Structures
1.
Amino acid sequence: MRNISFDVPEIDYLQLMERLKGYAYPRDKVTKLLCSGELVRIRKGLYLSTTTSIPYSKEILANLIYGPSYVSLEYALQHHGLIPEAVRVITSVTTGRKKRYRTPVGIFDYAHLPERCFAPGSQYEPVDSTRSYMIASPAKDLFDTLFLRYPSVRFAEIEAHLFENMRIDEDEFSRIDFSGIEALLKQCHRPSIRALRQLVQRRKNRDQTPNFYIIYIESMANCMYNSL
């Protein structure tokens, strides 16, 4: 019996049929591979090979199970180091309908995001030299989470909500670059997104405003030095 090997562990139906094209009855071979545990069926048309030396990626699977989609929301918040909690469900956003898939390797959740909000701020993250997946940038992840999970948060509540309720790391928040979704922040009128935009702008203005007390002390020190 010939051993079947694959270059990557995540395999769709077309890749599988291409690999098995030398068999007279490729579908029978698929059944045998599933029964032996060499293949694991994730959903219709998507499989994992258990014989590759490369570990599979849940994030790649998330992109493949249902699309168009990219990893976002709670799972991405954890991935970016913005929250301390471990997140078991792989969460994504999609322009399609809301879905949940229970698979042998975990639960995959998909929340609907309007198409106008979908593309800006998503990025490719490498797994290795040949594989990558799409995930929300830290800025887009906060946008998606506030837009979908907490749409009614107001500016007066935004800091407490982010840093206490959601337990966003404030130091990590201060390092987030929002320039990639600046237009999206301006175009969206949902209360929580307006609040996020105002918070980002206020902190930006604060960082750019000179500290006049420090300037005064430095000026006085220079005067004293020059008078000696």
2.
Amino acid sequence: MKITLLLCLLFLVCFPMLAQQKVTFQENFFNNNRFKIDGVDADAEEVAQAMSSFESSQKNFIEGHKQMKIGSGLRILGIGVLVGALVNYGLSDFTQDDTRTYFLISLSGMGVGTVGGALRRKGKSRVETSVAEYNYLKDRSNYNEISLRAGPGKIGLVFNF
């Protein structure tokens, strides 16, 4: 009976260590997101699924990844508007109306690109923070220990977490 109880307790302590996986986040040369779970390439959905045991990390990861996608799109849109305005100005007659149109369109393109860049940076920060938080919480949960402590008049089994 004691052996069965001890084996059950050992299983409960060691089981969380087997289920958790280490997640890493990188960006390649073209600023594309690369996620790895235990050294194996994974996409964002797989990473979110691996983080399911820690809901706050998973929620921040999903929202941060969405912000990164939206920010990248807005940044590309801003660059496209700037290039389009420059091409339009180059093909025009260089009148005052054309210059004003170029200036206003360029200003709006810079605004959209700036907002996109800021949104992407904020999303990247959230993703990096959530991955680091997940790895920390996962590692912290693996350091459960059972020890036998004895004191004056007290002897017992202590579970530290």
